[in-house]
Amino acid sequence: GILPMLWFCVLRSLHSAHSDTRHQVLAIVIGNACNVLLDWMLIYGKFGCPELGVAGAAWATVASRWVLLLSLAWMSRNELREHARLLRELRHPWRFAGKLTRYATLFRSR
21, 9, 22: which is closest to 68 by C-alpha? Predict the structure, then answer.
């Protein structure tokens, strides 16, 4: 469950940079609702699921983290397309990164 959580943090930072908290909150609500429902189903064996106890809670948490990531990724698909387009437009991204580093050190030394 750590990988989807880390990617969620990246997407959440993207939305925070754009001052968009609506999508973040909605994704968190969806993920938590999914976690509650899956916990109930997998811990107690409801709706035909096996009764797994603590292991069911772990599986529910992992699944809800993936739902959290996928819901925020779906809501931010337009922003992701725009950032991917900008990255494709950079002919030599490493050369561009080198220029940024040189400018940053130049301004820092002043």
Answer: 9
Using one digit for the tens of pLDDT, what is the confidence trace for 78-97? Answer: 877 777 777 776 666 666 67
Rounded Cα–Cα distance for residues 46 and 62 (Å): 18
Q: Looking at residues 61-78, what average pLDDT do you find?
A: 91
Enter the pTM of the model. 0.69
Using CB atoms within 10 Å of the CB of residue 71, give its burial: 0 to 12 exposed, 13 to 18 middle, 19+ buried.
buried
Question: What DSSP character marks residue 109?
Answer: T
Report yes or no: 9 and 18 within 8 Å, Cβ to Cβ: no
d(CA 31, CA 4): 12
